UniProtKB/TrEMBL annotation:
Entry protein name: Predicted alpha-helical protein
Ranges for region Disordered: 51-94
Source organism, top-level taxon: Eukaryota
Alphabetized UniProt keyword annotations: Acyltransferase, Transferase
Domain Choline/carnitine acyltransferase as annotated: residue spans: 217-836
Family: Belongs to the carnitine/choline acetyltransferase family.
Bias (Polar residues) ranges: 72-83
């Protein structure tokens, strides 16, 4: 697809004739480079068939007739003024002669013709094609200060899209094009939730209506990536110098050394440009995304062989349902339900737990039905729509252990399975939840079926086959293969579990904390939250009553406490968190009350069956060994949830005058320094869903500015100085967030370059063999923020490092901040206390060193 803009006088919107159209002088081109005005006229020729001279590179797909990314719909108005944009300095900004004097009547307009008639027009066209310009903005004033009516002309189809107002901003994506970061406004890496359609009935966009229009993830500039990378090394070297660990050298000298390595790597004819060209070729030959199609699942997840439990899987806990019986809510605390062994408490008095399990299952299935019908509003922000592909990986997806790396099941969308897997006391059941006509079973029918399943499970514990999935991936690969070889019965049962829409784990006891579990770091934290977190992670039961490979597992305890566990590779945790928010948005009707009529089917029975397992002596031994390994992993995993209610996101914005996400990242930096006396490489997730099949990139929170702020606090500088340092740190973080979320991050790019090294390239270049390169990517703080999470008691995921490292997920509510903290070997108690101190320190800094609340506006990214 090629894009041109026409003045009304140059092209009639209803004309089928072939005409010359151009960019008028009241328009600017945004390339993401330095500012300058573009050539006033860039000539193109509209045709109903793409001209051979305009063929796209290999792998490009046809343009979609849907409105482009971020484009104001033709029947919508916009009052947002467009902003100055930029043009690459390589475009000669010379006014071209008028169209008629350059192009006489031509039989065709291709690059050769343009070169013949005007070299400057040729240069500009080549720039547009090579740089893959995709963002065009109309300024608020047209030629001679007058508004200009503008049309977008898609040359591949001849379609003309009129714009209603000259004040509308237009973002035009084409295959392989990347939106300019200056046009994006990303408030945080991932702080949004499912939103209702507020337009006229019948006009809501379909869930996947924008997928064909999504731009591709760009291959970033080699120079920009390594400029940013060099800058990111500065705080490490400065800290090492301060600690006296540079052995006679200085941070300045060490940085200069690495600058020289980078210069050699980027030199013309050097290895850097070669690797960049290889990566561009990968991009040209992948269907959706050079990272996701080629490497992401394998390198980020499937080659990692450690157990999924408390390492890769994520977890999320629901708050108590408002209809939870009062006696259960009161007795869901520290020692109300001591656990003496699996099955020590049965389900005889679990009416609320069974009812809530049926309700949550129904809500998850209702979401699936809406997703299948494309009745879920596409996620979007002011930047434009987000890729919805990850939603297709929620249901029916399972990670399959294999050597040398795992795989995910190739589950179609919509998922065709009509059953879920119910696990109770290590017994596995197949429960049909979708009728043959595609309609869902009623909640009362589900509830009755769950009671029947629980009654059957009470006959005795199952063999515990699911514990095998908690083990090291190589071990689980071998035991699974052996299990399949023992009997066809096992293949049938494994297929049922792996093909099911999701798992529902009905735990036979309410997990409680041990007697010596430390008190919460802040008094606002409920005592039951940590117990529920351990249970949802799977660690609380030593791997029992779970199947860790499933993309979604609902966990419900007899008293109705509930949460979710998920395997991370199919989709990032943000997507299922939106599903979970939807599921918890409607309260569960109390037992004994009627459910809504449209969700009821009182005279129907659900089909369910118990899955059988043929367990031989070898498999039984493997289960015992996996159980020992799971208990050890659970013992080493320290999970803690911190609720902090002294202020929340509203105060951070209105009084602190900072972006909540950047502010909380600086709090984590300060907390780590308080706990360990230094700062470390820090990963924050940046969502790249603005691009087709986008997943994540990295925000490197440990920056020069973050280092200065933390050092200032530790040195006891005055409040005004510290506020200025905090402001500089949050602004720097905001810039990184914006760049990493808009395809200009550095870590995924460097990963792609490294993966394309070949044996014939010789020794690994110094820029990659440098120990500091590895250290800068050893994420001792791995962090991620979700939505406000008002319906969530907490979230979490595990760290990948054994000592002095943390996996931290946080929810920035308006009045309440929640942090899920996981570490190995009992380190979270001290970190949580240090985080409380950091949050209080920063409040004092803002109150005593910042401007009055009414003096400035809340900063925006």
């Amino acid at each position: 697809m090629r894009v041109a803009l026409a003045q009304r006088s140059a092209l009639s919107p209803h004309s089928s004739a072939q005409r010359l159209v151009w960019f008028g002088s009241g328009l600017r081109i945004d390339t993401g480079s330095s500012r300058c005005r573009p050539p006033p006229f860039l000539l193109f020729r509209t045709t109903h068939q793409p001209h051979p001279g305009f063929h796209e590179p290999l792998g490009t797909h046809e343009a979609s007739p849907h409105p482009p990314l971020g484009t104001t719909r033709p029947n919508a108005s916009s009052t947002q003024p467009s902003r100055p944009t930029r043009c690459a300095p390589s475009v000669k900004c010379t006014r071209l002669p008028s169209p008629s004097s350059i192009f006489p009547s031509l039989p065709g307009l291709d690059p050769a013709s343009i070169r013949k008639y005007h070299p400057q027009a040729s240069h500009a066209l080549e720039h547009l094609r090579d740089r893959r310009i995709d963002v065009v903005e109309q300024t608020t004033q047209g030629i001679r200060g007058k508004s200009v009516a503008v049309f977008i002309v898609l040359l591949s189809t001849g379609r003309i899209i009129p714009l209603r107002s000259s004040h509308e901003r237009v973002l035009v994506p084409t295959p392989r094009l990347a939106p300019s970061p200056r046009t994006f406004h990303v408030s945080s890496p991932a702080m949004f939730a499912l939103t209702p359609w507020r337009g006229a009935p019948g006009t809501q966009p379909k869930t996947f209506s924008q997928q064909r229009n999504m731009p591709r993830l760009p291959v970033p500039s080699l120079e920009q990536t390594f400029d940013k990378y060099l800058k990111s090394l500065s705080p490490f070297l400065r800290q090492l110098e301060e600690q006296g660990k540079l052995e006679g050298s200085t941070a300045e000298k060490e940085l200069a050394k690495r600058k020289q390595w980078i210069s050699e790597f980027l030199a013309t004819g050097g290895l850097g440009p070669k690797l960049q060209q290889r990566l561009i070729d990968v991009d040209r030959t992948t269907e959706n995304n050079w990272l996701d199609d080629r490497w992401w699942l394998q390198k980020a997840y499937h080659e990692w062989r450690v157990p999924l439990m408390v390492n890769s899987n994520w977890w999320l806990m629901f708050t108590h349902d408002k209809n939870m019986p009062a006696d259960l809510a009161e007795h869901s605390g520290h020692d109300a339900y001591p656990v003496t062994g699996l099955g020590s408490q049965n389900w005889n008095d679990a009416a609320w737990g069974i009812r809530r399990a049926a309700w949550l299952t129904s809500r998850f299935l209702q979401f699936k039905k809406r997703l299948d019908d494309e009745d879920i509003m596409p996620d979007s922000s002011r930047a434009g729509p987000f890729c919805m592909h990850q939603y297709t990986r929620l249901y029916g997806v399972t990670r399959i252990p294999a050597l040398p790396h795992d795989w995910n099941t190739a589950t179609p969308h919509p998922a065709v399975a009509r059953h879920i897997t119910v696990i109770a006391r290590d017994n596995y059941y197949e429960l049909e939840v979708v009728r043959k006509d595609g309609t869902l079973l009623g909640i009362d029918t589900l509830e009755k079926a769950l009671w029947d399943i629980v009654a059957d499970a009470q006959k005795g514990d199952g063999a515990g086959v699911g514990v095998l999935s908690s083990d090291n991936r190589d071990t689980w690969t071998k035991t699974r293969e052996h299990l399949l070889s023992v009997s066809p019965v096992n293949r049938k049962s494994i297929n049922s579990v792996e093909d099911s829409l999701l798992c529902l784990s009905l735990d036979s006891s309410v997990l409680a904390l041990s007697a010596d579990h430390p008190a919460p770091a802040h008094e606002s934290t409920p005592v039951w939250v940590d117990a529920l977190a351990r249970n949802c992670s799977g660690a609380g039961r030593g791997g029992h009553n779970r199947w860790f490979d499933k993309a979604l597992s609902i966990v419900v305890e007899p008293n109705g406490r509930a949460g979710i566990m998920g395997e991370h590779s199919p989709c990032d945790a943000l997507i299922p968190s939106i599903l979970c928010d939807y599921a918890a948005a409607e309260s569960c009707p109390p037992p004994g009350t009627n459910v809504p009529a449209e969700l009821s089917s009182p005279n129907e029975s659900a089909a369910w069956s118990k899955l059988e397992w043929a367990v031989d002596e070898s498999t039984q031994k493997s289960i015992q060994q996996s159980e020992v390994a799971a208990l050890q992993a659970a013992k080493e995993s320290d999970i803690r949830t911190l609720w902090y209610d002294e202020y929340g996101a509203d105060w951070i914005k209105k009084v602190g005058k900072h972006s909540p996400d950047a502010y909380l990242q600086m709090a984590l930096q300060l907390a780590y320094a308080k706990a360990h006396g230094q700062q470390v490489s820090t990963y924050e997730t940046a969502s790249t869903r603005l691009f087709k099949h986008g997943r994540t990139d990295v925000i490197r929170s440990f920056s020069d500015e973050a280092y200065e702020f933390v050092r200032g606090v530790r040195e006891g500088k005055d409040a005004k100085t510290l506020y200025a340092l905090l402001t500089a740190a949050t602004k720097s973080h905001n810039t990184q967030t914006r760049e990493s979320s808009t395809g200009k991050g550095i870590d995924r790019h460097m990963t792609g370059l490294r993966l394309l090294l070949r044996a014939e390239d010789g020794e690994t270049p110094a820029v990659f063999s440098d120990p500091l390169f590895a250290e800068s990517q050893s994420w001792r703080l791995s962090t991620s923020g979700l939505s406000a999470g008002d319906r969530f008691a907490g979230t979490g995921f595990g760290t990948g490092y054994p000592t002095e490292s943390y996996g931290i997920n946080y929810l920035a509510g308006a009045q309440l901040l929640k942090f899920g903290i996981e570490s190995k070997h009992n380190a979270t108690t001290n970190f949580a206390r240090c985080l409380v101190e950091a949050l209080r320190d920063m409040r004092r800094i803002c109150e005593h060193g910042g401007p009055p609340p009414e003096a400035t506006q809340t900063p925006k990214l």
